[in-house]
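Inverse folding, one chain.
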């Protein structure tokens, strides 16, 4: 969340940010009732001071044997008004807090304004492969090899779920282990986190209340299945103060991810492109506020290094305001080219949140140079199953088999071909 003083002093900027991010929060109403609430509190404070002075005067008058009836009656009226003001302020406070939690982070000044079509290409790496045959889409390739079953998961769970078999399931496991090993070697601390979290944890990272309809909730226990390990990892330090000389703190974590994808009906329904349940390795940074810009470049480069080692052509996009997440102030998307699908597929979003999440989750730092809220960042390193899609489609051969990228072969016992 944004600092309340910042909100008061930057109304035009915040209002523009709400519009640019295409959020639905009634920001005008927030400012209206927040002003009313603060006015009520100020008047209540003044009346309380008046009551305190009057009570003291009445007490002194009683000691002198003076008649205090009129003064007491006057104070009863003031006390009544004071009670009304406090009640009104409390009522407004609830509405203010509801709206406050729905105000998005402000994008960086140089973020392009607009929607997905206005995302800016920062750079590309590699060249899309050329084939002397018509490349197949991964759903046809996987089905032909008997490694991707679309019918069984539909029977047991409905749409948006997958069943990988044999070497394709092993390939995913190899990718997960390789991702984690690469990040550990780069200085990340590997953690294994809960997949069910309390509402406060989801609120801390910005999923609640805005994205409630996209989350799977276990109502009996009031717990949510995580949509990404970002939620659990960020909340490791909820309501804690980190030592300044220990920053940055960098974690990596594997987890399944659960998303209802409300509002995404009909999009990317074939194959593995859009799942209600999928696997991902997440990277999370806690950094000093002065280091967050450089940390985003480092985080993005770490995710890119995996794509380069896999020799998958990709592009880096700076997301426009309307494509930014609720909590992000800046985001780089990494998109891999998939020849069978015939388009770019997002496999990582690397975001900087400034102190937005830290303020919601109460994560601070303190050191010799001062104290304050940390800055948080996170990114996919990387997201599955779209990486599997990219490998299947980019490494397919004319005979319908799939070549295993060299870096993954040690994780598959030296196996070089899938489907042979």
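Residues assigned per position:
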């Amino acid at each position: 969340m944004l600092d309340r003083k910042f909100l008061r002093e930057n109304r035009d900027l915040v209002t523009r940010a709400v519009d640019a991010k295409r959020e639905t929060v009634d920001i005008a109403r927030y400012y209206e009732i927040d002003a009313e609430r603060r006015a009520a509190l100020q008047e209540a404070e003044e009346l309380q001071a008046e009551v305190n002075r009057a009570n003291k005067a009445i007490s002194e008058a009683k000691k002198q044997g003076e008649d205090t009836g009129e003064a007491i009656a006057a104070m009863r009226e003031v006390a009544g008004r004071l009670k009304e003001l406090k009640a009104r302020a409390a009522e407004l406070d609830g509405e203010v807090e509801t709206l406050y939690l729905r105000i998005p982070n402000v994008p960086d000044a140089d973020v392009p304004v607009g929607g997905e079509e206005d995302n800016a290409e920062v750079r590309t790496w590699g060249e899309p492969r050329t084939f002397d045959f018509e490349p197949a889409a991964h759903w046809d390739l996987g089905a032909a090899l008997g490694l991707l079953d679309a019918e069984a998961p539909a029977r047991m769970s409905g749409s948006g779920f997958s069943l990988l078999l044999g070497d394709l399931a092993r390939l995913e496991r190899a990718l997960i282990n390789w991702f984690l090993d690469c990040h550990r070697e780069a200085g990340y601390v590997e953690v294994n986190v809960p997949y069910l979290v309390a509402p406060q944890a989801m609120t801390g990272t910005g999923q609640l209340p805005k994205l409630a309809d996209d989350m799977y909730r276990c109502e009996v226990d009031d717990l949510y299945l995580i949509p990404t390990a970002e939620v659990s990892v960020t909340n490791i330090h909820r309501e804690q103060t980190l030592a300044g000389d220990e920053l940055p703190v960098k974690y990596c974590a594997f987890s399944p991810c659960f998303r209802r994808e409300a509002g995404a009906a009909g999009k990317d329904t074939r194959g593995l492109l859009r799942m209600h349940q999928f696997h991902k390795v997440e990277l999370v940074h806690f950094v000093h506020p002065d280091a967050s810009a450089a940390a985003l470049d480092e985080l993005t480069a770490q995710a890119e290094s995996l794509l380069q080692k896999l020799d998958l052509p990709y592009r880096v996009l700076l997301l426009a305001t309307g494509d930014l997440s609720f909590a992000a102030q800046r985001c780089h998307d990494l998109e891999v080219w998939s020849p069978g699908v015939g388009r770019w597929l997002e496999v990582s979003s690397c975001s900087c949140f400034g102190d937005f999440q830290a303020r919601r989750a109460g994560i601070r730092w303190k050191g010799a140079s001062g104290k304050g809220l940390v800055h948080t960042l996170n990114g996919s390193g990387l997201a599955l199953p779209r990486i599997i899609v990219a490998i299947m489609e980019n490494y397919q051969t004319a005979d319908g088999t799939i070549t295993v990228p060299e870096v993954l072969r040690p994780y598959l016992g030296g196996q070089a071909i899938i489907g042979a």
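The mean pLDDT is 94. The first helix runs from residue 4 to 9.
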